[in-house]
Prior knowledge:
It is a single chain. It is built from four helices and nine strands, in the order H-E-E-E-H-E-E-E-E-H-E-H-E. By secondary structure, the chain is α/β, with parallel strands linked by helices. Strands 3, 4, 5, 6, 7, 8 and 9 form a seven-stranded mixed sheet that branches. A two-stranded antiparallel sheet has the order 1-2.
Amino acid sequence: MVEAGLGHxxxxxxxxxxxxxxxxxxxxxxxKLCGVSIIRSGESMENALRACCKGVKIGKILVHxxxxxxxxxxxxxxxxxxxxxxxxxxxxxPILASGSSAARAIQVLLDKGVAEERIxxxxxxxxxxxxxxxxxSFPRMKLIxxxxxxxxxx
Length: 154
C-alpha cells in the first residue's frame, strides 16, 4: 500500500553514479513527505513506510469517539512535524469503516495548514460508506485502498 501511495507523489528525474562508476537516471521525490498514523491501527503501517522511505518523519493522531455516538469525535493526542504544512502527508489507517475518525484526523491536518490535495489516505480495507464520506467531504484528497469490503461500515 505504501508503495502504491508513493506512486502518487510528484517526482523529478535524478542522475546518480553507481558503485561501478556508471550513471543511472532514476527518480526522486520532488517534495517533502511525512507519514501520520491514526493511533492504534495506523501504527501497523509505519514499518512499511519506514522500509520504503528511510528517515521519514512520522506524526500521530489519536481520535476518540465520545460515548456511543460515532458522529462525535475528539482529538485526544496529536504530535505532528512542525513543518507539516509544507509536506505531502500519507495518512495511515488500515481499516476505513464509517470514516468518522478518518474525517476528524483529516480535519486536524487541514487545520495545521496541509493542503487537501497533499493528503493521501492509505487503507488496506475500506467500506463503501467510509469511502463515500471521505470523497464527498474531501474531494481533492486521494484515497488509496487495497480492498473494498461491503458490510464493514458502522
